[in-house]
């Protein structure tokens, strides 16, 4: 297991199969003061979540290749790591009622970068 982030720079996991969008979000959150790690799909994200003990928030797209989409990833994170906040985004799919009744958050695309930073920051401070 790996734990090396400082309290001043909470760790966020960005999950997106589109390299340019993932890079944009990594840069956005890094510039906002977060320590950001990234995954290209949900399976990779689950491996990181198992290995890296100090992830505070997962920011994930919905549609990705592989056996798990972003909604399923969010449910798995909530079940296995309830202390980790989850923000899900999509430009094509909307969350179902079960998702909306959970502690997770959905942000439709296109989104304002500042709004995403504020949401992630609110998860960090709510769970600290």
Describe it.
It contains five helices and five strands. The protein has helices spanning about 20-30, 40-50, 70-80, 95-100, 115-125; strands at about 10-15, 35-40, 55-60, 85-90, 105-110. Strand 3, helix 3 (about 70-80) and strand 4 form a beta-alpha-beta unit. Strands 2-1-3-4-5 form a five-stranded parallel beta sheet, sandwiched between helices. It has one domain: Rossmann fold (3-Layer(aba) Sandwich), CATH 3.40.50. It is of the alpha/beta class and about 130 residues long. Mean pLDDT is about 90; it is low at about 1-5.
Comma- or semicolon-separated keywords:
disordered N terminus; Rossmann fold; 128 residues; alpha/beta; 5 strands
What's the short story on this structure?
This protein is α/β, with parallel strands linked by helices and 128 residues long. The protein has five helices and five strands; from the N terminus they run βαβαβαβαβα.
SSE-based structural type = alpha/beta
- Terminus-to-terminus distance: 21 Å
Strand content: 15-25%
Count of helical segments? 5
Tell me the radius of gyration.
13 Å
Q: What is the strand tally?
A: 5
CATH domain class name: Alpha Beta
CATH superfamily: Response regulator
Please give the order of strands in the largest beta sheet: 2-1-3-4-5
Largest beta sheet, briefly? 5 strands, parallel
- The SSE order reads EHEHEHEHEH
CATH architecture: 3-Layer(aba) Sandwich
CATH topology: Rossmann fold
> What percent of the residues sit in helical stretches (DSSP H or I)?
40-55%
The general outline is: globular
Uncertain spans: 1-6
**Count of distinct structural domains:** 1
